[in-house]
TrEMBL record:
Entries under PANTHER family matching the protein: CYTOCHROME C-TYPE SYNTHESIS PROTEIN AND PTS TRANSMEMBRANE COMPONENT, PTS SYSTEM GLUCOSE-SPECIFIC EIICB COMPONENT-RELATED
The protein's name: Phosphotransferase system, EIIC
Keywords, sorted A to Z: Cell membrane, Membrane, Phosphotransferase system, Sugar transport, Transmembrane, Transmembrane helix, Transport
GO molecular function: protein-N(PI)-phosphohistidine-sugar phosphotransferase activity; protein-phosphocysteine-sugar phosphotransferase activity
Compartments reported by the entry: Cell membrane
Segments forming a coiled coil: none
Length: 205
């Protein structure tokens, strides 16, 4: 249960460390820092737009609700933010890995050498995560609606949905991306599709 509840942290850390070919610990830290910065940036946007999301009320489907309830906000890193879940963890992990890949051999002048190489990319990942989080905070509502719509649409397909999932899974195996598909199906709105979950269990376990 603890692993499922914190799947976003695990994915952000594990993906960055798993993709890195060296300095894996620093790469893992980069993924985590990028994820933290994403949430802090999102919290800032929510505060600017809505003030206190836990108290500010808006009309949703004809009923007054708090912003926190409408958007399903959750406390992450001590602030109220969107529930990015494993999808957000993947984005942060990939961002942390990319920053790590291009900066872990970066050399600074001797005066600034202390900040070079492994010490630099967690800082760079934090800055990149902050910028990325500012943009993601504005469009996440639409992404979330898209994920929900995808899940609901697949459920309406009935027995065809496992076939579609299985075909996508087989097609992605040569590229090593099938586990990304599994994360998407298990940890988002698609998790309630029992037929797909049955196929996943047969393939994974």
């Amino acid at each position: 249960m603890i692993a499922i509840t914190n799947i976003d942290f695990l994915v952000a850390i594990g993906l960055a460390a798993g993709l890195a070919k060296s300095e894996k610990v620093s790469a893992a830290l980069s993924g985590l820092m990028a994820y933290a910065a994403m949430h802090l940036a999102t919290a800032l946007i929510l505060k600017i737009v809505y003030g206190d999301p836990s108290k500010t009320e808006i009309v949703f489907e004809g009923v007054k609700k708090t912003v926190k309830d409408v958007f399903g906000l959750k406390i992450r890193f001590g602030v109220l933010s969107f529930q990015y879940s494993a999808f957000g963890g993947m984005l942060a992990g990939l961002l942390g890995y990319t920053i790590h890949k291009y900066t872990y051999k970066l050399k600074f002048p001797e005066v600034l050498s202390f900040f070079g190489e492994p010490k630099f990319f967690p800082v760079a990942s934090t800055l990149a995560g902050w910028v990325f989080g500012l943009g993601l905070g504005y469009i996440w509502v639409y992404i979330s609606k898209g994920l929900t719509y995808s899940g609901n649409s697949l459920q309406k397909l009935g027995a065809f949905s496992p076939f579609l999932y299985y075909s996508l899974n087989r097609a992605l195996i040569p590229f090593g991306l099938h586990q990304v598909l599994n994360f998407f199906f298990i940890t988002h709105q698609l998790e309630h599709n029992e037929l797909i979950l049955m196929v996943i269990k047969l393939l994974v376990f």
